[in-house]
Design a protein that fits this description.
Elements: H1 15-29, H2 31-37, H3 43-49, H4 54-82, H5 85-103, H6 108-136, H7 139-153, H8 155-167, H9 173-194, H10 208-221, H11 223-253, H12 258-282, H13 288-311, H14 316-328, H15 330-342, H16 347-368, H17 381-401
Helix pairs in contact: 1-6, 1-7, 1-9, 2-8, 4-5, 4-6, 4-16, 5-6, 5-9, 6-16, 7-12, 7-15, 8-12, 10-16, 11-14, 11-15, 11-16, 11-17, 12-14, 12-15, 13-14, 13-15, 13-17
Length: about 400
């Protein structure tokens, strides 16, 4: 399908283009943490207001994660066929509308359904942002740009829970979704005005759904691609287990306020940003596999330390440093695992490859999120066990599957 006048191809970015791309793609990539982190401090109040159990309310998080996963599988291949810009604009627009409907949800089942739609729509932003980077960069340069995106979108997990916690002083959880709606509308405007097409018509995928399925099958059959996707996805899921369980653990078990929790969450998010910048500076000088292995070791150390701290009753002095390691390690893991998985892939399948990366992250994360609440909101043991198991699985998957030369193309 030919590009329109508003889709002028821009495939050789200047320094100004790079800055604009980083700001816009970083903001779009932040839709995940924006959708999840801002309302985390409100989970206990939402549970009370809608007269629901903690595990049921945590399904609102799971629904968003499932939507983020499934939506990427749809939006990624569409962007390979139609170009990046149009599917992106459609997704972000629907995201803003779904966020507004979440604000007026009358009960938890309705909110769960709307969160599924919200996640599926927002997924277009996440998967296409990664594909745009692959359109323009490869190898260590791609890893550096992904690290730059983490600096930009790192503002979301730092600011979102703090803003959400402060909003709760003046409004309810519904007000949080109103603010998310406004931010979504601003993203639509920024995308429309500032992001041009990066996939020329001649480079687009033209084989139809059957060819897309064959592309997916080829990626699934690539052992090394699966190794990078799963190791990154499992480590990412450990962070989601923390996201789902920590509001109840910190507030209900250790007695801190929503505002205290939001500050703790912000510190951990800053750890992601700092580790991401270390990754960006070292990419090209240190092999990406080495950076990935270091991040997975850091995550595993945090997972084991967390299980020990909870099991021995060390309290917050033991729990918080362990959680920091688990969360900050994501800043090393994700740029390296993403760049390694996408390097050498032709642009025509970059959206599909990006979609499978996102699928692994959010499906595993969505499955892990409710597990941390299976024993209620008054014990931290499930959270510790789930996080420790996921970090161990991520490390073992990396060792078992990612060795060897990955075929290109």
């Amino acid at each position: 399908m030919p590009a329109t006048a508003s889709e002028t191809i821009e495939v050789t970015p200047t320094r100004t283009d790079r800055l604009r791309l980083a700001l816009i793609l970083g903001a779009l990539s932040a839709i995940g943490p924006l959708s999840i982190d801002m309302y985390l401090p409100a989970l206990p109040k939402l549970t009370h207001d809608l007269s629901a159990g903690a595990s049921l309310v945590q399904l609102t998080l799971t629904a968003c994660l499932v939507g983020l996963a499934v939506g990427q599988v749809v939006a990624g291949p569409l962007s390979d066929t139609w170009g990046r810009r149009r599917p992106l604009l459609a997704g972000v627009t629907l995201y803003a509308l779904a966020s507004l409907l979440c604000a007026v949800a009358p009960n938890v089942p309705t909110l769960i359904a709307l969160r599924l739609v919200q996640g599926a729509a927002g997924a277009a932003a996440i998967v296409i942002a990664r594909a745009v980077v692959r359109d323009l960069y490869d190898g260590p340069e791609a890893a550096r740009f992904f690290s730059l995106l983490m600096l930009v979108n790192g503002v979301a997990p730092v600011a979102a829970p703090v803003v959400g916690g402060q909003l709760l002083r003046a409004t309810s959880w519904r007000g949080v979704f109103v603010l998310i709606t406004v931010i979504g509308a601003l993203m639509v405007a920024a995308t429309w005005a500032g992001l041009r097409e990066t996939l020329p018509p001649g480079a687009r995928h033209t084989g139809g759904p059957g060819s897309t399925l064959r592309t997916f099958a080829g990626l699934f059959a690539d052992r090394v691609f699966v190794g990078y996707a799963l190791s990154g996805g499992l480590a990412f899921a450990a962070m989601f287990a923390y996201i789902s369980g920590s509001p109840f653990v910190v507030q209900d078990i250790y007695g801190l306020s929503p505002q205290d929790f939001s500050l703790i969450f912000a510190v951990n998010a800053l750890g992601i940003v700092a580790a991401g910048q270390v990754s960006g500076r070292l990419a090209g000088r240190v092999p990406l596999r080495t950076l990935l292995a270091a991040g997975l070791c850091m995550s595993l150390a945090g997972g084991v330390a967390l299980a020990v701290a909870i099991g021995t009753g060390l309290g917050l002095p033991g729990v918080l440093p362990a959680l920091f390691l688990v969360v900050a390690a994501v800043g090393l893991i994700m740029p390296s695992s993403t760049a390694l998985a996408l390097t050498g892939r032709p642009p025509a399948v970059a959206g599909s490859a990006s979609a499978l990366l996102g699928l692994g992250q959010f499906v595993i994360g969505g499955a892990a999120a409710p597990l941390v609440g299976v024993a209620g909101s008054h014990t931290a043991v499930p959270m510790g066990v789930v996080i420790a198991a996921l970090t161990a699985a991520a490390f073992l998957t990396y060792l078992a599957l990612s060795r060897g030369h990955r075929p290109i193309g």
